[in-house]
């Protein structure tokens, strides 16, 4: 890992971290879409995949504008959450619980992304121009909108499972 000598170095590192996180997520969204039973969750996964790809495209543009390479270290946080989800899924036989476990991980990944983009925006405000800020603000707005959708979907899945458990 490169030494961070100034705020710009940390800014670039955090952008690379988000880039890797989004790339990892795209790698699992399609696979998860094949596993879930909830039509609503399938829709959410498709939205998440589209959003992650859009963020990668935005980050590619920013890296080009900054004359930086987007390749960096692996986002260990995202990798760990995905590995943990796979362990949970191996031990889950109830398809409703599987859907909830998948969405739980997506929400955790998303929370990490949301915080990461907030940090990047704060750094960018100090070290870069308004064009970069505008792109980052749009990405953060997209993350916040997605956050609301994930929360609503989680609540619906939990309520559905609770009703099924009460009926049994």
Automatic annotation (TrEMBL):
This is DUF892 family protein.
